[in-house]
UniProtKB/TrEMBL annotation:
Record membrane topology: Multi-pass membrane protein
Subcellular location(s) of the protein: Cell membrane
Keyword Cell membrane in record: yes
Main location: membrane
Full protein name: UPF0295 protein F7732_15390
Pfam families per the UniProt record, alphabetical: DUF2614
GO CC aspect terms: plasma membrane
Species this chain originates from: Bacillus mesophilum
TM region(s), chain numbering: 12-32, 38-60
InterPro entries cross-referenced by the UniProt entry: UPF0295 (IPR020912)
HAMAP family assigned: UPF0295 (MF_01502)
Family label: Belongs to the UPF0295 family.
Signal sequence residues: none
Length: 120
């Protein structure tokens, strides 16, 4: 298991789990079909999760337009870099847009706000 994954992939996994949770919550609602109030509550809650995941997917779309498209030096495929350091979506090759970080060991802390502020 890779310790890190590309950010866009991470958010995508999050959106997918939101849909999953939404369906589970709706499924729980079926057990309360004796009580229309509880069932409606769970159905609405499930719908909220699914709507939220749609929002996250929309957010991924926005992020993708901001991400820089690069050719991965390792596998030669087009991938997107978000922030200062990110990972190839296909082969998990660490990539950086910052020349000063080149050759350094991949560390997600380079993306933290304090680091970004000192750079900007
Ligand atoms: Zn790659």
């Amino acid at each position: 298991m890779a310790k890190y994954s590309s950010k866009i992939n991470k958010i995508r996994t999050f959106a997918l789990s939101l849909i999953f949770v939404g369906f589970i919550v709706m499924y729980i609602g079926i057990f309360f079909r004796e009580s229309p109030v509880l069932m409606t509550f769970f159905m609405l809650l499930g719908t909220i999760f699914i709507v939220a995941s749609t929002g996250v997917y929309f957010w991924i779309g926005l992020l993708s337009t901001k991400a820089v498209q690069v050719v991965c030096p390792s596998c030669g495929k087009y991938t997107k870099v978000l922030g200062r350091v990110d990972m190839c979506m296909y082969c998990k090759e660490p990539l950086t847009l910052d020349k000063t970080l080149e050759g350094k060991e991949f560390d997600e802390k380079y993306n933290r706000k304090s680091q970004q502020n000192s750079a900007n």
